[in-house]
Amino acid sequence: MMEADTNKINTVQAKDQGSKIQTQKIQEKKIQSPKMQTHIIQTQKTQEKKIQSLKMQTNIIQTQKMQEEKIQSLKMQTHIMQTQKIQEKKIQEKKIQSQKMQVQKIQQCKVQRQKAGRLAGLDTIRGITLLSMMLYHTCWDLVFLFGKKIPGYSGLGGYVWQQSICWTFILLAGFCWSLGSHHLKRGLIVFGSGILITFVTLLVMPESRVIFGVLTLIGSCMLLLIPMEKLLLKLCAEIGLAGSFLLFLLFRNVNTGYLGFENWNILKLPDGFYENLFTTYLGFPQKGFFSADYFSLLPWFFLFLTGFYLYQLVQKNHMMEKLFSWRVPGFDVIGRHSLLIYLLHQPVVFGISWMLFQI
After folding, report:
1. Quick check: pTM over 0.70?
2. Is residue 15 classed as helix, strand or coil in its secondary structure?
3. Which is nearest to 235 in space by CA: 313, 319, 318?
């Protein structure tokens, strides 16, 4: 009996102890649960801080990269602008140097003109051509004014003779332009002499009037070349010479309405080009126009330019003295006074012919 009671007591005590232990565990769990939650929360906060920190670092890195890219872009733009400025300076310096070279070239030409004076060979060629022209005009007066017959004069031989005189005079005028000085004054004198011949022939011999004759042409070419000289000198002499002469050949038949040379007509020009006195002066004669001596700007200005570039080529190769230091006595004197002789020769030739064949 006693033992049974004892066992009961022990069982109750054991239950109480188990109950206490469970209660302690529950309490411990209760105590631990807030701690765990607090720990979890703290851990989450720590992770969030880390994530936030990483985001901040990423933003900072991205911002730095953007700033670096902006700085790099600004550097590139600055470099491009500096490069452009340097290139512009170089271009400007080249232009200034080119202009200085042209000015020096013109000044050297002027100095060489002063040193060289007149070249007797050029005067001799001019004198020979002038005498040939005087003989040609004498034949012209005899044939067309006094009715005389000169075999071959009205055919191909006479035409070639006349063309040789024209070509030589105009080519020589272009060649000598760079040797002369006071271009405006000389150009106006020659142009005015051409106008004088026009008025005299209209008054004295209207049926043989001279409008836009060779002196008007040469004077015009001399005046036109004054503003064009610097531009023309930019072109090398060889190209200028070849181009000018080819243009002369191409425009040779412009007075008759075509582009082409002599018997070779390449292209017919519009009739609208040939309308008035100004177009006649340029090279497109109006209907019914007549002149006993007609030399328009086209094509002859290109032959004048051919002479201009021929001089540049000869001067460039230092051949001026070698080619033109010779002289033929008498002919060079005539060549030195070519304008005065040209103005006076026709009245003298006509007067002599009239005394010989009319009196």
Report:
1. no
2. helix
3. 313
